[in-house]
Target: cysteine synthase
Amino acid sequence: MPALLSLHSEAAPTALLLAIASALLGAYSAYLVIDFRDASRHPRDSKKNSSSPSTHPIQLTDLTSSKLSTIPLAPLQPVRAGVEELIGNTPMVELRSLSAATGCRILAKLELANPGGSAKDRVALAIIEAAEAAGQISPNCGDAVFEGTSGSTGISLAMLASAKGYTAHIALPDDTSTEKVQLLETLGAVVYKVRPASIVDSDQYVNFARRKTNEINAAADAAAAANPEAPRLPRAVFADQFENEANWHTHFKHTGPEIFAQTDGGKLDAFITGAGTGGTIAGVARFLKSTIKRSPGSTPFRVILADPQGSGFYNRIKYGVMYAPTEQEGTRRRHQVDTIVEGIGLNRITVNFQAGEKYIDDAVCVSDKEALQMAKWLVSHDGIFIGSSSAINCVATYRTAKALGPGHTIVTILCDSGSRHLSKFWKEAQTVEPLESLDNL
Ligand SMILES: Cc1ncc(COP(=O)(O)O)c(C=O)c1O
Model:
């Protein structure tokens, strides 16, 4: 097109028409095969064409009615009223290479298919709706949602705040990658870069977000008390994903029932995932444990925690003690959970983890190297490109399948896409040798 625009002005309209015509023809040819075969191969036309080679007919084959595609056209979802209605009802896919290696049916729920790219869309929506129901915030009044997070929850809150008439305010450590800060700002969030500090410091980023929320609400309350007739001042809610029970409730109400329905009424033997806040495992485990009915004598349905190296959850489930080697005297680091993995692993018990702890039967600890190897395996064998926490889930799932033996169905979660982890996890993955067989894992 730029070449056409530089043509002499008289030629331009014709050239433009030609360009449009050729573009339309180009698009149409995606559906049609233009067959220039010699007419002699078409008995119906052979006579005519043998006498006049210059007028060979062009045979058009309509591919729209042929069976070239292997993708069945399922009933399509109705049009949604907004981005929030796209959250949940995520698809499930079989991880074929893991099924083949274990003799089990390994299924992955694609939480990465939520519009904000992770399961945190469900949590952000539940938290905003709970705050609205409690009268803490109202849309389009200048109200705000605060959170201290450098992870997926900030992205989901930023997306939903814009969609629902709020502003997201996200506090994070000032050494968070510029990539993440830019993403949040592009999504419309106000970002506060706070110096890294201990959780007991009032300026630690989570405490900072809580304090800012309280200041805004105190000002609004004071103004309303001084003059009840004065216009309402903006209010704020602190999302508090670790302690806010709207988090596990949404997984109990939605993610759990979806898994139940997608496995033909709960025909699964194990559910495996990691814990960051603990909301996913708590909500799903509570729902499935209370719903799945096993016939007497069959193996019980099990919930298994996948934990990265350096996290305390593994020891908590195995031995009842929240302890990680990084807690050892003299070895404490700035990042307590000493792993490349983001989003899961913790060294404290949260309200959301507590809500599901008694439903967790066992735990599997996975090293960074194993997670990197699994991520590389899945991208090259299944075409599935995942982030670090999902890779931990898949290693734990593979191990559990091997331990249970063939014939079992296991469901895990693919939390987010590898594209969120290019600069760290996937960069590191380039330094790891690919596995020749999963037996080496
Ligand atoms: C990428 C990713 N995976 C997994 C999780 C863990 O989910 P949950 O907080 O429900 O335990 C998180 C939590 O932030 C996450 O960001």
User: Anything to note?
Assistant: The chain is about 40% helix and 15% strand. Residues 2-64 form one domain. Residues 118, 120, 151-153, 274-280, 343-344, 387, 389, 415-416 surround pyridoxal-5'-phosphate (CB under 6 Å). Residues 1-55, 329-334 have pLDDT under 50 and may be disordered.
